Amino acid sequence: MADNMGAWKYDHDHVSVGATPWIQTDEIEGNSGYSYDPVAPQFYHENNAGGEDEVDKAQVPQSVRENLENTARGLTFGGVLDGVPELPLGDEVNIDTEFNQGTVAMFVDLTEEEDEWFGSEGATPCLIVFATAVKTSNNHLLATGSHLDNVYNYEYSYAAIKKMKDELEDKGVGAISFYVVGGEVGCNTNPNSDTLTMDYSRYYPFFDAAYDQHVTFVGQNFPSNPDGTTITSAAITANGQDVNIRVWTVPAD
User: Fold this and answer.
1) DSSP SS3 for 68
2) Which segment of 6-20, 42-56, 61-75 scores lowest on mean pLDDT?
3) Helix (H, G, I), strand (E, B) or coil at 57
4) Among residues 157, 155, 188, 179, which one has the least CA distance to residue 232?
5) What pLDDT does 118 receive?
6) Which residue, among 205, 185, 186, has the nearest Cα to 17 in the 3D structure?
7) How many other C-beta atoms can be found within 10 angstroms of the C-beta atom of residue 103?
8) Cβ–Cβ under 8 Å, residues 142 and 131
9) Could you give the C-alpha distances from 232 to 5, 46, 57, 92, 229, in angstroms and in order?
């Protein structure tokens, strides 16, 4: 995944918080020397002294911001989500077994919890992730769920994905399938928004980690939210050995 970076490159060795990649650009339509920290979040530009100055989003050319997000989205979808169906948005459901922001790999037997919804509410710059598989000894549909708030950190993301898989594999399952729902995207490329946090560039390290672990995604959704005014939720329930999944958005408080 890291071999085809386009105009932007992701540097795992440049640490600003934990193992956060510093995102740098080569020349884009005459504009060069920009970098982006998805944690702060903050844009920077090279100065004449050889360092970098913080720059407001409004000072960053629209072409640079669009290229950042197009590159990040292209790498994400080209690496692990290419061809993965988009999950439709639907009506809100009552979540019976809920996991909160920061939860990693909460386990549930969906077959035993028949007709109950398992999920999480309120993803903004987060990812809600489900892993599901069928237990070979009794054909029960099992799942782990995570609401990941540190997805800009490769090591955190790698560990979270591994834990989700391990929880299922330890129970003797077949093939594991993943679903991912992103907090809203589009703020970086909206010239009328000062918000920087909800973008594909923030999620890229998670998908880099997923690619490295050969994760199979079977459903995804990244609702567009260029003004940062809504939040996303998702939940799953069992339909025999199949998964029903519901994704919905509501106005942010």
Assistant:
1) helix
2) 6-20
3) helix
4) 179
5) 98
6) 205
7) 17
8) no
9) 29, 36, 24, 10, 10
